[in-house]
Design brief:
- Helix content is 49%, strand content 7%.
- With 439 residues, the chain is mainly α.
- Strands 1-2-3 form a three-stranded antiparallel sheet. A three-stranded antiparallel sheet has the order 4-5-6.
- A hairpin with a 4-residue loop joins β4 and β5.
- The protein starts with 7 loop residues before the first strand and ends in a 31-residue tail after the last helix.
- 39% of the residues are buried.
- It binds carboxymethyl coenzyme *A (CMC).
- The site of carboxymethyl coenzyme *A (CMC) has 19 residues, from α17.
C-alpha cells in the first residue's frame, strides 16, 4: 500500500525568542489536525515535550479511527458496532489487513491461507518444556512468539512484501495454537492440535478445553461470545502495545520479534492486563457490601488502588466496545444461566454503583472493554491468567496490519524520541581514593 503524503491546509505560527516559524498543519480524513513539528528542532533548537504522548500523533495510518469524545471506533471506516453484530473475526482480520471487506471467494481463500499455517513446528514444544508449569502464560507467549523468528527464516526479510505477508498469516494463524499450548502446559495436559474445519474462535476453545480422552462439544454461546470479543479487540489505533510494535519495527526488527515486544507491552495492568486485574480486584472486594469501601479507596489520592476496567486514555464519553460487550455480557450470563454467580453479581453491582458515583461521572470514568471481557471470560470458565493472552490473540491482527503499513510507508524512519535531560551537568571523573560518599 502506498500512502499519499498529507496535504498542507493551514499554518500555525510559533514565536520563540527572536525567531518566528511557520509550522504546517495537516488534516486527515477525520479527527483533529496535526501540527508538523519535523522542522522544529532544526529551526528553533527546541524539542517538544509530551510525556505519555497526550498530544502526539506518532504516525499517519489508514487502519483504525477513534473519536474519544463521541465514542466512535472505526476499522477501515466501518463502525465497530456493525462489525461486532454482522461480521466475524476472519472477515474483520481480512478487512484490517487488506483495507476492504472480502468477497465470498476472497474470504474463503483467506481462511484457507490462515488454516494452512495453524500448526507450529514440533520443535516449538521444547520451548514450552523449558518453562515452569506455574509460569504466567503471558511470559510464555512473549518467549514463544519471539522464538518463532528462529523457525521461520523464510519470512524474516522485511524488505520483501511476500515474506512480510507470509509472516502476517503465520502470526495470525499460530497465535491461538500457541496460546492454547501455554494453557495446556500450565495444567499438565497434552497439547491439542488445531482442527481446520473449525472457526478461529471455535478452534481456540477446542484447543484449550478438549482432551484426547473424550469427544468435546464446543458450546456455541461461548464460540459466538469469543468471536465477538476477538472482533472488538482486533485493533485500537496507536495504543501502547501497537506503538511498541511500530517502534521495535522501525529499527528493522523482524515481525515475530516485534509482536513479542507488543505482547510484553500489552501485559501491563493499565493496558491489556486490565481484564485479568478486573477479576483480581473483584476477588479482593469479595462481597457486595464491601463495594463502598473500594469505591472510596479508588477516589483516595493517597491510595494507589484504582477500579480496574474503568477509565480510558482516549474515550471520554464511553468506550463503544464496552457498550457492545455490556449487552453481550448480560445476554451471555442469561443464556448460560449463571446470573447468580457471586463474582459476576459483584461485577454488575460494582458497575451500577460506579456509574452513579459523582467522582466517576465527573472524571468521565466509564467501564472499558476489559471490564466486560473479564466478566465474560470468567463466565466461560476461561482461567484468569489466560484473559490477556486472548486479548493478544485478537490484537495480533491489528498489530501486524499496523506493522505492515509502517514498513510499506516510504516516509518510515527509525523511531528515536529525544528527552528533557534533568540529570547532573558535566563533571570530571574523580579517582576512587578521592571520592567522598554523598548522602
Ligand atoms: N479508578 C479511579 N480513578 C481513576 C481511574 C480508575 N480506574 N482511572 C483514572 N482515574 C482518575 C485518576 O486518578 C486521575 O485523577 P486526577 O485527575 O484527580 O489526578 C484521572 O482519573 C485521570 O486519570 P489518568 O491516569 O491521568 O488517565 P490516563 O488517560 O493516563 O489513564 C487509564 C487511562 C486507562 C490507564 C486509567 O484510566 C486506568 O488506570 N484505568 C484502570 C486500568 C484499565 O482498566 N485499563 C484498561 C484500559 S482499556 C483497554 C486497553 O487499553 O488495553
Amino acid at each position: 500500500m502506498t500512502m499519499v503524503a498529507p496535504k498542507t491546509q493551514h499554518v500555525a505560527r510559533l514565536s520563540y525568542q527572536d525567531k518566528t516559524i511557520d509550522l504546517p498543519v495537516y488534516f486527515g480524513t477525520d479527527g483533529p489536525g496535526v501540527l508538523d513539528l519535523q522542522e522544529l528542532h532544526k529551526k528553533t533548537g527546541l524539542f517538544t515535550f509530551d510525556p505519555g504522548f497526550m498530544s502526539t500523533a506518532s504516525c499517519k495510518s489508514e487502519i483504525t479511527f477513534i473519536d474519544g469524545e463521541k465514542g466512535i471506533l472505526l476499522y477501515r471506516g466501518y463502525p465497530i458496532e456493525q462489525l461486532a453484530e454482522k461480521s466475524d473475526f476472519m472477515e474483520v482480520a481480512y478487512l484490517l489487513l487488506y483495507g476492504d471487506l472480502p468477497s465470498k471467494k476472497q474470504k474463503d481463500d483467506f481462511v484457507l491461507s490462515i488454516n494452512k499455517h495453524t500448526l507450529v513446528h514440533e520443535q516449538v514444544i521444547s520451548f514450552y518444556r523449558g518453562f515452569r508449569r506455574d509460569a504466567h502464560p503471558m511470559a510464555v507467549m512473549v518467549g514463544v512468539v519471539g522464538a518463532l523468528s528462529s523457525f521461520y527464516h523464510d519470512s524474516l526479510d522485511i524488505q520483501d512484501p511476500a515474506q512480510r505477508h507470509i509472516a502476517a498469516l503465520r502470526l495470525i494463524a499460530k497465535m491461538p495454537t500457541l496460546a492454547a499450548m501455554a494453557y495446556k502446559y500450565s495444567i499438565g495436559q497434552p497439547f491439542v492440535y488445531p482442527q481446520n474445519h473449525l472457526s478461529y474462535a471455535q478452534n481456540m476453545i477446542y484447543m484449550m478445553f478438549s482432551t484426547p480422552t473424550a469427544p468435546y462439544e464446543i458450546n456455541p454461546i461461548w464460540a459466538k461470545a469469543l468471536d465477538r470479543i476477538l472482533i472488538l479487540h482486533a485493533d485500537h489505533e496507536q495504543n501502547a502495545s501497537t506503538s511498541t510494535i511500530r517502534l521495535a519495527g522501525s529499527s528493522g526488527a523482524n515481525p515475530f520479534a516485534c509482536i513479542a515486544a507488543g505482547i510484553a507491552a500489552l501485559w501491563g495492568p493499565a493496558h491489556g492486563g486490565a481484564n485479568e486485574a478486573v477479576l483480581g480486584m473483584l476477588e479482593e472486594i469479595g462481597s457486595i457490601d464491601r463495594i463502598p469501601e473500594f469505591i472510596q479507596r479508588a477516589k483516595d489520592k493517597n491510595d494507589p488502588f484504582r477500579l480496574m476496567g474503568f477509565g480510558h486514555r482516549v474515550y471520554k464519553s464511553y468506550d463503544p466496545r464496552a457498550t457492545v460487550l455490556r449487552q453481550s455480557c448480560h445476554e451471555i450470563l442469561e443464556e448460560l444461566g449463571i446470573k447468580d454467580n457471586p463474582i459476576l453479581q459483584l461485577a454488575l453491582e460494582l458497575e451500577r454503583v460506579a456509574l452513579a458515583d459523582e467522582y466517576f461521572i465527573e472524571k468521565k470514568l466509564y467501564p472499558n472493554v476489559d471490564f466486560y471481557s473479564g466478566i465474560i471470560f470468567k463466565a466461560m470458565n476461561i482461567p484468569v491468567s489466560m484473559f490477556t493472552v486472548l486479548f493478544a490473540v485478537a490484537r495480533t491482527v491489528g498489530w501486524i496490519s499496523q506493522w505492515k503499513e509502517m514498513i510499506a510507508d516510504p516516509m518510515q524512519k527509525i523511531g528515536r524520541p529525544r528527552q528533557l535531560y534533568v540529570g547532573k551537568p558535566y563533571r570530571d571523573y574523580i579517582p576512587i581514593d578521592k571520592r567522598q560518599e554523598e548522602n
